[in-house]
């Protein structure tokens, strides 16, 4: 039978999504379950199994030749294991082996969720046509991935480009990762909200104290809210400038809930980037919002599977 599809899995702390995906990135069949993140590792795997069972029941299943997984991290692609921070039941969990077994022995490609998002934006989104890109997710955490020389670069363990945990404030606040002053500790949604509250900003009558509510206040001119976004933008700009200086990227794509703040984030980000990205070879760097939305994880997992399959066939890997 013609094996022109791949199976994609997007595994996060709130949902486990799956799809059968064709070579143009179209999601032909979908399945989804909530992640029982506070339950045992086996119970979480059961939910993954339910998603896969729905996909294998599809008449299109026979056309799938590989599985791509984008998982919350850290992941260890070389060992085939995952240890997502927000799924405590999974520590060094052998996800690749378990998914391959549930998928009838198909080969499985595992990448971190930031790398998956990057693959999606490069294949069909805002980084399409760029050979050197940093793509980032700024939401509850901050993650990312790299495309260099036209090729996705997940690194040996599948985590390369994890810009959220590079330090941009040498003596800054302790980060849950163990370091100090990480980009995530300054720029994630919860930290934007925390800083606004500490500065005296108060939520409206609906009690919404999220970064999205701080963004609404910033748009209305609230000085504390504006300052909190400016600080986040500064941290992101420093991280992007460091990345560009290190490996020469042409574009930085930013997705995730915090990117939904729009100009409240992007205007100070572009301004700060001019201060940090100073050398001639990084001055032309473009910063732009992601466009792939909620399906980025699935599309990116599919892209990783297509690329791995092409490599295994001895062909030139698909340039995702
Ligand atoms: Zn950190």
From TrEMBL:
GO terms for molecular function: kinase activity. InterPro entries: ATPase_NBD (IPR043129), ROK (IPR000600), ROK_cs (IPR049874). Keywords: Kinase, Transferase. Signal peptide: none annotated. Belongs to the ROK (NagC/XylR) family. This is Glucokinase. It comes from Streptomyces brevispora.
């Amino acid at each position: 039978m013609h094996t022109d599809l791949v199976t994609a899995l997007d595994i996060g702390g709130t949902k486990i999504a799956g799809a059968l995906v064709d070579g143009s990135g179209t999601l032909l069949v979908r399945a989804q379950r909530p992640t029982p993140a506070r339950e045992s590792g086996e119970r979480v795997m059961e939910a993954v199994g339910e998603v896969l069972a729905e996909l294998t029941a599809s008449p299109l299943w026979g056309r799938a030749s590989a599985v791509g997984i984008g998982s919350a991290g850290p992941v260890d692609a070389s060992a085939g294991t995952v240890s997502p921070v927000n799924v405590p039941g999974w520590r060094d969990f052998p996800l690749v082996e378990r998914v391959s077994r549930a998928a009838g022995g198909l080969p499985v490609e595992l990448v971190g969720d930031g790398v998956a998002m990057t693959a999606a934006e490069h294949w069909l989104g805002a980084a399409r046509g760029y050979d050197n890109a940093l793509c980032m997710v700024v939401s509850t955490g901050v993650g990312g991935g790299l495309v260099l020389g036209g090729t996705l670069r997940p690194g040996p363990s599948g985590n390369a480009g994890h810009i959220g945990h590079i330090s941009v404030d040498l003596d800054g606040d302790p980060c849950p990762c163990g370091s100090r002053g990480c980009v995530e500790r300054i720029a994630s949604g919860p930290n934007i909200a925390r800083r606004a509250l500490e500065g005296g900003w108060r939520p409206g009558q609906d009690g919404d104290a999220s970064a999205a509510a701080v963004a609404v206040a910033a748009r209305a001119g609230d000085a504390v809210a504006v300052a909190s976004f400016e600080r986040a933008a500064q941290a992101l700009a420093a991280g992007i400038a460091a990345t560009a200086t290190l490996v020469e990227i042409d574009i930085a794509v930013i997705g995730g809930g915090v990117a939904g703040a729009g100009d409240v984030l992007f205007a100070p980000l572009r301004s700060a980037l001019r201060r940090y990205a100073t050398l001639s070879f990084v001055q032309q760097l473009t910063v732009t919002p992601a466009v792939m939305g909620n399906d980025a994880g699935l599309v990116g997992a599919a892209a990783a599977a297509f690329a791995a399959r092409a490599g295994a066939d001895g062909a030139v890997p698909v340039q995702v």
